[in-house]
Specification:
413 residues; Porin; two-stranded antiparallel sheet; 18% helix
Length: 413
């Protein structure tokens, strides 16, 4: 029996090793097939590279290459196909602002229906050291350059410099375009004391710098303007009649959901009260002091559906004129709460003296309801009651439709 086992054992070991040898051969065959496949792909890529190089070496084809490159679609960062020629064009957007009014206002009436403003924006990076922003406003009274400036963000000393025509950094509301403000109108204090809808906007330059500290974000801004801006706020009759604006802004995160934004402003320029019936009877100045505060609440887990913004701004106007100095003051307080993803409700209280007759005071209250079908459009209704210092009380319902097309850059936060 032992002899039989000894005789059969070599055959048993041979049969056990046979599957292993077959597996090894199969693996080697797969490796060889993969190596051959990769070598073929490398050869194909090398052939394509040679073809491209040969085409580039042909003068006629090399001359036509830029045109072909401009026409060839390229993939953008969003995954869509865009024309590479877009790189040399600015971002262009159009924002329409349609307003309507119903009710009575004998002191400051507005049209029943109007295309209040159409803003066309051109924005682009000039080079690694500058960017340009131009905003052209088309309205019922014609065409106006609302803003047009170039920004230099990388100057020595950590300075941020803007040159051109721009809205002055006085308070908060003065810096906002019409389509950004959360109401159909501007507060009385802005209308009466800070130059109306246009506000302090003029040709000049601005220098801003962050103030390093460990507690809060601080930014100081100084601006010099040509001297004529607003609805009669400042008027320049000589080259030296410049307007000066200073602004100190602070920002602080209170919690993960809440932050506080506040600022202090000062402005100085010449007014038009020295010209009576075309005759210059003297040079008089106006100085504005302002304070603003904004508190925002936006819970991280429900930020799409609920949020709150409270705003307030105070302005003191010190205006010199032939009959003496007029000290006028005004403020507004507003609150806006997000009811749902697309619905917002708010209220605003206004109180403001008039700059040339400080004893005359206007006040008003507003209720606002806004609906945003998308981020590109909005529908807003506002009930406004205004108690004028001179004239009958106005009760109005204002409604607004806004829409936007194109790539519009973000406005200051």
């Amino acid at each position: 029996m032992l002899a039989v086992l000894l005789f059969r054992s070599p055959f048993l070991f041979a049969q056990a090793g046979a599957p292993q040898a077959a597996d090894l051969a199969s693996i080697r065959a797969q490796i060889d097939a993969m190596r051959a496949d990769y070598e073929k792909k490398i050869q194909d890529l090398q052939k394509q590279l040679d073809d491209i190089q040969s085409r580039q070496s042909t003068p006629a084809q090399a001359a036509a290459a830029p045109e072909a490159l401009a026409q060839a679609p390229t993939s953008s960062v969003t995954g869509s196909s865009v024309n590479s020629g877009k790189v040399f064009n600015p971002d262009i957007s159009v924002i329409g602002d349609f307003l309507g009014a119903a009710g009575s206002n004998e002191v400051n009436p507005s049209p029943a229906l109007e295309m209040h403003e159409t803003e066309v924006a051109f924005q682009a990076v000039v080079d690694p050291y500058a960017r340009a922003d131009f905003f052209i406003s088309f309205g019922e009274e014609g065409v106006n350059l609302e803003e047009g400036y170039v920004t230099f963000p990388a100057l020595p000393g950590g300075l941020l410099v803007k040159v051109g025509k721009m809205r002055a950094a006085f308070g908060k509301v003065n810096m906002l375009h019409n389509h950004v403000i959360p109401w159909t109108d501007r507060p009385l204090v802005t209308t009466n004391l800070v130059g109306g809808e246009d506000g302090i906007d003029d040709a000049g330059f601005s220098v801003a710098r962050l103030i390093p500290n460990k507690l809060i974000f601080l930014e100081a801004t100084g601006q010099v303007f040509h001297g004529t801006s607003g609805d009669g706020l400042y008027t320049s009759s000589e080259r030296s009649d410049l307007t000066y604006v200073g602004h100190l802004r602070g920002y602080k995160d209170i919690t993960d959901n809440t932050n506080l934004d506040f600022g202090f402003s000062i402005s100085h320029g010449h007014n038009a009260s020295g010209v009576v019936n075309g005759e210059d009877i003297g040079r008089f100045t106006t100085r504005l002091y302002g304070g603003d505060a904004t508190i925002r609440w936006k819970p991280l887990q429900r930020s799409v559906y609920h949020s709150f913004i409270g705003r307030s701004e105070f302005v003191w106007s010190n205006r010199n004129q032939p009959n003496g100095t007029q000290d006028a003051k005004g403020f507004f307080v507003s609150a806006d709460y997000q009811l749902a993803r697309r619905w917002y409700m708010g209220g605003r209280y206004d109180h403001s003296d008039r700059p040339d007759v400080a004893s005359v005071t206007d006040s008003g209250q507003s209720l606002i309801l806004s609906y945003f079908p998308s981020e590109f459009s909005q529908i807003r209704g506002q009930y406004r009651r205004t108690d004028y210092g001179v004239g009958p009380t106005a009760n109005e319902f204002l409604f607004q439709f806004q829409f936007a097309i194109g790539a519009h850059g973000a406005h200051p936060f």
